[in-house]
Amino acid sequence: MGTRPVKVLIVDNEIVRIGSSNLNNRSMGLGTECDLVIEASNSAQRHAIAKLRNQLLAEHLATTPEALAAAVAEHGSLIRGIEACNHNERGLRPFPETDIDGPIDPIPGTNVLDPKEPLKLF
Length: 122
Hints:
about 120 residues
């Protein structure tokens, strides 16, 4: 069996989710996925989640986690902190929309690949 890409979701330094599932009904109800979710219950755990977030973002911004944390603290906002650090050749860039006038109807077969709700087990 091959490896699956790992996805990371961090929400407000309160929740971190790391795993292979996609956020759709097929992955959540049918796939053989594995995820770990941690919810912070105190300030030390929220700090640990923020540290993980800073490490991951700093890698993509070609800076250090400490520099990113300082920028976030200085600007009072994660977005503004990222913008302050996003000046290197390597960084976060907008992903341009290519076809905003494309079809809005589901592609035929979508309900098989991603059902409207998780499938019931027998």
